[in-house]
Amino acid sequence: MATARKRQVSLVDTKYYHCISRCVRRAFLCGDDTITGRSYEHRRQWVEDKLLALAKVFCIDVCAYAVMSNHTHVVLYVDDKKAKRLNDKAILIRWHKLFKGTLLTQKYLQGDKLDKAQQFFLNRTIADYRERLADISWFMRVLNEDIARKANKEDNCTGRFWEGRFKSQALLDEAALAACMAYVDLNPIRAKMAKTPEDSGHTSVQKRIKAAKEAKQPKQLARFAGSPRKHMPKGLPFELKSYLELVELTGRCMREDKRGYIEQHTLPILERLNIAPENWLKLTTQFTKVFKGAVGRPNKLDDYYAHLEVKRRTGISHCEQLFG
After folding, report:
1. How confident is the model at residue 246 (pLDDT cuts 50, 70, 90)?
2. If we measure between CA atoms, which residue out of 168, 150, 228 comes closest to residue 8?
């Protein structure tokens, strides 16, 4: 039986989550269908555009993504503090970019006066919208429903396009976050769809590399804020340069089918995260095979399951082996 989403998300323990959606049809979500000869390559852009557009509306940042032939990977950061900080009008404006809202929300934005009863129900609606704008389930729902409608219209058919539920994994510490992001960014290379990260179409690493050439970071993605420190600004707790070097080096190791040592010098990010090189390669090539639930160091995993009041510690042996 599938685990309820509320039993998988604990913002007290982590705000980072890895989500995977898979297509249920034989026909590809994207790419070329060798049987029919049809190309669905243009749908990759659909997914990428919608994903980055939703990041502007929701209080959820996109850390990494990869649009594959029959599935998508995204690593998300839930900025619930931002959702609480926005005023009522800002919440409604954001929600109306996705949905029509209600008669009361429309009247409020038009400047019409509301009586006490109307204001009461409006406040309840705003509270619901505020919660939804920091909800991973709503984010993935809006993303997948939009793509499914477009694909069904193009294929002139009805029915399910995606599997019933997307899969999600809690990323409990920096090591799990770095490993998962590298795993996602290197998906096209592992699938032999690209030879280098900069050639990996419709991935976050390609977008980051293009921006880095101009000494910038892409506005649509979560920023790299550098190494953790006392007064840490919002952003990924790594150096952008170190992360890109790590992805490149890991990808080269995979293409040459090497295991174990990454040359003689270890990259600073691996030293800081205390991950053995041989474990790093396993993490970045078999992440979803090795881990079926939350990912992180054993002590972080214990806290996470304790907050969710879950007795069964799924995947703790692999976490002890690879992160210990």
Report:
1. confident
2. 168
Burial class (CB in 10 A: 0-12, 13-18, 19+), 143: buried
Q: From the CA atom positions of the chain, what is the Rg in Å? A: 21
Q: Cα 204 to the chain's mean position, in Å?
A: 10
Q: Which amino acid is at 64?
A: A
Round to whole Å and give the CA distance between 248 and 252.
6
Q: What is the pLDDT of residue 10?
A: 86
Q: What does DSSP assign to residue 53?
A: H
Burial 96-126 (b: 16+ CB within 10 A, else e): eebeebeebbeebeeeeeeeeeeeeebeebb
**What does the pLDDT look like over 56-83, one tens digit per residue?**
999 999 999 999 988 899 999 999 999 9
Q: Is the pLDDT of residue 109 over 70?
A: yes
